[in-house]
User: Fold this.
Amino acid sequence: AVTAEKRGKDDPRVFSVTARVKIRFEEEDPYEDAIDLQRLCFNLRNAELDLKGRSAGRAVSMKFFKPVQFTAQIFAGGAVFLLGCRTLLACRHASAAVVKCLSRVLPKKIVKYEMKVSSMKACADLRHPVRLEGMYWDQREHAAYEPELFSGLIYRMKEPRVSFLLFVTGKLVMSGSKHYQDYVEALEEFREIAAEYNSAQYIASGDPVVS
Assistant:
C-alpha cells in the first residue's frame, strides 16, 4: 500500500491533518477534571482559554512553533485536538510535544497517550484541463457545479467515501476520509472518469470546448 510518506509523483499529497490525542493519567478521578485548564493558563505563556465557539470556557488553545507549527486545543477531560499539521509525521511530533509540555506543568503523571486522525485533506493534479460543465451534465448524480457562485466542481464518490473539489486546470482537493489509502484508490478511479472530459483532446480535434 502507498503511504503518505512514500508516495509517487502522481499520488495525492497530504497538506492538512487534524488529529485527536487521548491522554491517560496515573490517577484518574471520574468526578474531577483530568486537566486543570486554569493551571495551564497561569503557567504557560502561550495558553489561552477559548472564549468563542462551541469550546468556549471548556478548552485551552496553545500555539506551538517547534518541532512543527500547529495549534493544540486542550479539553479538561483529557482530549487534545491537533490543528494545522501538514503531514501525518507532523501529527506524531505534535502529539509528543503536547504531552511533554503538559507533563512539565500538571501534577498528575501521564501514563500513556493515543493519537487518532480525525480528518485529512490532500491535493493532486490530473495533469490535463477538464471540461467541468460537460462532466457535470453527465455525472449529475455525484456532481455539483454552479460557475456563477464558484469556479470549482464538487464530485462526491460513494466508495471510497471521498469528496473532490475539481478546477478546470485539472488541479483538485480531496477530503472526507481519515485514511490515506482511500485517497489513493479514489484518485485512481477519478482519473478514469475525468479522462473522458479532457479539454486538451477536444482542442486537438478542433471541437468546441465548454468549461
Observations:
- DSSP finds five helices and ten strands in the chain.
- The chain has a mean pLDDT of 89.
- The first strand starts at residue 13 and ends at 25.
